[in-house]
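Quick start: what a row looks like.
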Amino acid sequence: MLPLAGTSFAASCSGTSCDNKGPRATACETASVSTQRTIDNNSRKAELRWSSGCSAAWVRVTNNSSNSLYNSYGYIEKYDSAGKLIRSLSIRVPDTTGGSDWSNMLGGASYYYRVCISFVGNEYPLKCSSKF
């Protein structure tokens, strides 16, 4: 059965039950989403996306460079209140200029999150946002 155009669905996860699930598949990408942090590293952009409707975060990466020579990855990291890294997920930045993609989510309102961009071979240093 296919939904009719314009049909909305409630998000299918909340908090830590969203861990490693896709924001689109769970309808979290439309549940009160905001961009909390943005970083740029050699024309590769990483955005920390937060769904208050799902209490979950993910990284959306965009390639704004015309040079696809360097492989790069975006990361989202989840920290506890003591600053200990709990889990991280990554997504490869697309090779095409203007291409974008996103990671699966990490959830829970009582955690801190940040996003990073790294390059294979250390052509450019790792760059990370502040925590949210």
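That is the whole record. Residues 1-7 have pLDDT under 50 and may be disordered. The CA atoms of residues 21 and 60 lie 14 Å apart.
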